[in-house]
Amino acid sequence: MSGGWWCAGVRWPGQAPELGWSRGGDRRVSVLAYGGGLGFRALGERHCKGARGNVCPLGAVVPGRSTGGRCAECARLDRAHSVAADTMADDPRTYRVYLAWFGPGMVKVGITGEERGAARLREQGAVAFSWLGRGPLMAARRTEEVLRAALGVPDRIPYAGKRAVRGRLPGREERAAEVAELYGRAERLEGRGWPESLERLPLEVVDQVALFGLDRAPAPVRAVRELVDGGVVAGRLVAAAGPDLHLAVDGVGVVVLDTRLITGWDLAAVPAEAVPAKAVPADAAEGTAAEGTGAAETAPAVAESDVRVPLIDIGSGGVQGGLF
Fold this sequence. Notes:
This protein is of the alpha+beta class. The protein is built from eight helices and 17 strands. It has helices at residues 72-80, 119-124, 137-151, 159-166, 172-187, 209-212, 284-290, 295-298, and strands at residues 5-11, 18-23, 26-31, 37-43, 94-103, 106-113, 128-136, 199-200, 206-207, 220-224, 232-241, 244-249, 253-258, 266-269, 306-307, 311-313, 320-322. The strands form two sheets. Strands 1, 2, 3, 4, 10, 11, 12, 13, 14, 15, 16 and 17 form a twelve-stranded mixed beta sheet that branches. Strands 5, 6, 7, 8 and 9 form a five-stranded antiparallel beta sheet that branches. Strand 16 (311-313) and strand 17 (320-322) form a beta hairpin. It is globular. It starts with a strand and ends with a strand.
């Protein structure tokens, strides 16, 4: 391992996406802005990102295409302590149940901690959503299960499906109408499996298209399949939704980078003249070279926007659309 910066992925604590970074005990955050440049080069091998803030004790190498980015042991540890595992029945916090809309016919029911606000909805890339209710964890979980069965909606929607429809979303009124229709069906279930301890919240559809930048960005055409040693990703950020960054790349179009694919890699900034604003910490290339890899010293300059990693076409069932 070269000692460069590791990306912790995208976070949405507020109204703008942020990239988290770590190198040893150092932690940094890059706040992203639409229209700004983003560029990096992957170095070496991809390693397990650990679990619950702990470094992987095995230093395991993980596959480039894994969106989890963890070895089997760390994945089990992370899952065991998640809300979804139902191992915290005595959790005293208040939870909220929500309906999240990602595209026509693509709606899911979920829960999130009330103190997190809508961060969970932004992290999932929900185009529109409405709260359904609030209450104790187990009441929220029970409501989630009842609604899933009664409304016939899933607990998760694959990101490939979300990406495929982002470039052709219906208008705001149609989006709101679909959420409202499902909310009405959920509302009629009160008294029929809806826990008494869960307070129903009024319908209020929140639309996040403008927040994500999807209302002014071209439709994405390709997505990064995986990073490789020496692979470059550089472009202009035009939109973001959940873990996905939409990058405009000259000669290619808009390419989606799922930031879950970049965790566990050592990343170095591309040369300053290549991209107008770097999302990798400014000293990443310098720090990598200082560790003796020579990567930052010998790497050729890249164009202002450039992608040299395997790509797949969006909406084509995962067919590879380009390599380097």
